[in-house]
Amino acid sequence: MYTLVVVVLSLLSFLLIKYCRRCRYCLETKRLDGKTVLITGGNSGIGKETSIDLARRGARVIIGCRNAMRAEAAVKDIQQASRSMNVHFRKLDLSSLRSIREFCRDFLEKEKRLDILINNAGISSCSTVTEDGFATCFGVNHLGPFLLTTLLLVRLKESAPSRVINVSSDVYRMATMDFTRFRTASRPFASYSSSKLANILFTRELSRRLEGTGVAAFSLHPGYVSTNLLSNQPFLIRMVMCPIVCLFFISNEAGAQTSVHCAVSDQVLQHNGGFFSNCRPAQLWCHAADTGVAKKLWETSEQLVGQKA
Length: 309
Ligand SMILES: NC(=O)c1ccc[n+]([C@@H]2O[C@H](COP(=O)([O-])OP(=O)(O)OC[C@H]3O[C@@H](n4cnc5c(N)ncnc54)[C@H](OP(=O)(O)O)[C@@H]3O)[C@@H](O)[C@H]2O)c1
Fold this sequence. Notes:
With about 300 residues, this protein is of the alpha/beta class. The protein has one domain (about 25-225, about 250-305): 3-Layer(aba) Sandwich (Rossmann fold). It has ten helices and eight strands. It has helices spanning about 1-20, 45-55, 70-80, 95-110, 135-160, 190-210, 235-250, 250-255, 255-265, 290-305; strands at about 35-40, 60-65, 85-90, 115-120, 160-165, 215-220, 275, 280. The longest helix has 23 residues, at about 135-160. The site of NADP nicotinamide-adenine-dinucleotide phosphate (NAP) has 29 residues, from helix 2.
């Protein structure tokens, strides 16, 4: 009897691990010669793997990162792994509206194209506020990408057909959009999940506003990926998460697949404004598909950054 229980439990654990680590790869072979891709947080994790894949396809890849030393080391790695020298770094700190404005001024001055913008950078530790006084998760994960995207829209429209890809997460399901707490650092998980819900609402409103311009927008869940995302969490959380990450999380390369798919596939264009997971369109829970909330978030974000898009 005891042996049978052990065998059944082992089998169930094996199936659960296999289910959690299931991952579809992007099979598109499309080249991106002559295209320019900007990817935020391209120095690490999912962003770095996405950069390698897109550089391999011939794109000019620019990684927007806050730390020059880490970024320059990553540029070398990406160049080596993709066998492309057309990989570059520009300084961008998404926690600072000033840095985003400087970055965009410089980008628009020097870059004649922007075919794919991937808002990938993100943080999960949310206990402080940004230099502009916003809760860090909201500031870095939503407000920064909102300002960056709206300032770069001019170049995206000129380069149409073009795409904006927002890396969200399926933890949005546990979130609510609380319009009263943008300036207060609240419970870390609640802040993180609500910033990921904001990514989805932003994408939907963006695609609605860009109808007919040739600029498409998508949001996605990359899977649960063993990156540095948890590295700033308290020691105890990291210790608890360690075995879970080892058993259930997928590799960085696997985690980049849905971003790559949204960047290169022509099939995704039928789902403009949509949410993707595992290289497929995924059904959104209704609170994330609420057009009224998406519109309110857009207008609130415009007021908070002091910029009408
Ligand atoms: N890993 C997962 O399981 C998972 C699941 C769902 C969604 N996601 C999403 O996937 C995206 C990528 O995360 P990851 O897992 O690849 O984590 P990661 O390895 O920690 O990468 C995050 C990237 O964001 C950058 N970043 C953080 N704050 C920034 C700021 N203020 N300005 C500019 N860049 C900043 C980081 O730069 P530094 O190197 O300088 O810190 C890093 O390059 C995030 O949006 C995350 O929410 C991840």
